[in-house]
Specification:
By secondary structure, the protein is an alpha/beta fold. Helix content is about 40%, strand content about 15%.
């Protein structure tokens, strides 16, 4: 009982953190193109990524308040994709998780006709991957909402955006049906509750009832996801299409029933999203939450049937850390990956305060498989750290190897215990722009990219020590760690 034959080892990225070329090839602006860099010394471990009001957005578009928008430049994968994919192939990748930039295909989101230059770019990327036998794993929406949909409709709060998304999904399914077999609908769909702008394109100052707007937008995304699943099954019968959750395993701080109950509530609120997409309906605890918080979801006739009939083929998730819940309201909270919780004294933390918990990944795998009984896919996991380039050019990132080895060991144990795990794509397999902080200095990759937080550098690629280590992991199908 170990990693199954055909296990999908690889790496994960997102268009908005990787591609650059934000104003080339007919691409429109996305929501992440408007997120500025804020130095860590100014914000601490806080996440600075939301644009909250129409006025703030208009000021950013007018050039007021700075000019460092790191996600516009990424690491210029747009012009370096052949070089980068060759390095992924050298590591032995079986799959490469990437996203299609929605505004590269439909610059305004509501366009009738797609942008051919954008479609042609991804044709070239997929062809390059397939040349090396690497299966593309493609996310349809990875924080990449066209900015025009924010300006005209306040993002996913408007039901019309469902139709625009389905049109986009059907367009790319039709174009790439002979090249892409693995799809995901929305990346970390639950992030909308923490960051309405990034998750759902909502300018939160433009709505009266924040939670009402967020959960209505999420309902529209659930419907859009189910309709994309339906279209994918009809258009690409041999494909698999899944959902994606930012998973946060939560422990009670003590065995106090108050702490245990709080941890249970937080776990339910995290798994609500996959309950809808995997089981096909809103769980009763969420209906109770809506009633208690005066949230009324506007459902159209047929929505419930769509959700029930078109559930996903597999469940994918990101896992970086675990959290601790306390029933005491005055407990100091630690920040990390959009979430916050009480500090766990039994765990070490990364340079960014994220608590490192390999065994928590095994707990999550077992818990989620027990709950859903569908194939699982870990599509993000990795360590963001400061890397030092030595005088000879080497980068000895043993801390990254230790982190990944410990997590992969726990994956292996979960498989032995009966979990159906189909793949693992390490986050940021090549250094890219951080989603949560827009830093370049927060590095995840096996491949170093010469660029700093301000865009200075040659963009030269070089291998870290972890490159050869991960190559060996893949070569031996996880037997040599």
């Amino acid at each position: 009982m170990t990693f199954p034959k055909g296990f999908l080892w690889g790496g994960a990225t997102a268009a908005n953190q990787l591609e650059g070329a934000y104003n080339e090839g007919g691409k429109g602006l996305s929501i992440f193109d408007m997120v500025q860099f804020v130095p860590k010394e100014e914000r601490g471990n806080e996440i600075e990524m939301d644009v909250r009001s129409k006025k703030e957005l208009e000021d950013l578009l007018a050039g007021k308040g700075g000019d460092n928008f790191p996600k516009r430049r990424g690491i210029d994968f747009y012009h370096h994709y052949k070089e980068d994919i060759a390095l992924f192939a050298e590591m032995g990748f079986k799959t490469f998780r990437m996203s299609i930039s929605w505004p590269r295909i439909f610059p305004n989101g509501d366009d009738r006709e797609p942008n051919e230059e954008g479609l042609a770019f991804y044709d070239k990327v997929f062809d390059e991957l397939l040349k090396y036998g690497i299966e593309p794993l493609v996310t349809l929406s990875h924080y990449e909402i066209p900015l025009t949909l924010v300006q005209k409709y306040n993002g996913w709060t408007d039901r019309r955006v469902v139709e625009y998304f389905v049109h986009y999904a059907e367009t790319v399914f039709n174009r790439y049906k002979g090249k892409v077999k693995y799809w995901l609908t929305f990346n970390e769909i639950n992030v909308s509750t923490m960051s309405p702008y990034i998750g759902s394109g909502i300018l939160i100052d433009e709505v009266e009832h924040k939670e009402q707007a967020v959960y209505q937008a999420l309902h529209h995304q659930f419907v859009a996801s189910a309709r994309a699943v339906k279209a994918c099954h009809e258009m690409i019968p041999d494909a698999m299409i899944g959902c994606m959750l930012a998973r946060m395993e939560v422990y009670p701080e003590t065995c106090s029933p108050d702490d245990v109950l709080e941890a249970l509530k937080e776990d339910q609120m995290n798994l609500f999203f996959t309950d809808v997409q995997v089981r096909g309906y809103y769980p009763s605890f969420m209906l109770s939450y809506f009633e208690e918080n005066d949230i009324k979801i506007d459902m159209l006739p047929g929505d419930e049937e769509i959700l029930l009939q078109h559930t996903v083929d597999y469940l994918s998730f990101s896992y970086y850390m675990s959290m601790v819940a306390s029933g005491a309201p005055d407990k100091k909270k630690e920040k990390g990956n959009f979430f916050s919780g009480v500090k766990n004294p039994y765990l070490e933390s990364s340079d960014w305060g994220w608590q490192i918990d390999p065994k928590g990944l095994r707990i999550t795998l077992k818990k989620m498989y027990d709950r859903y009984q569908v194939p699982l896919f870990i599509v993000e996991n990795g360590l963001g750290a400061y890397d030092k380039v030595e005088e000879d050019g080497s980068i000895n990132d043993d801390y990254r190897i230790d982190y990944m080895r410990a997590h992969i060991e726990q994956m292996k144990e979960a498989i032995k215990e009966g979990v159906d795990l189909i793949g693992y794509t390490s986050w940021g397999c090549i250094d890219l722009i951080s989603a949560s902080t827009s830093e370049m200095s927060k590095r995840y990759g096996f491949i170093y990219v010469d660029q700093d937080d301000y865009g200075n550098g040659t963009l030269a690629r070089s291998k870290k020590k972890s490159f050869d280590w991960y190559k060996q992991v893949i070569t031996t199908n996880g037997e040599e760690l």
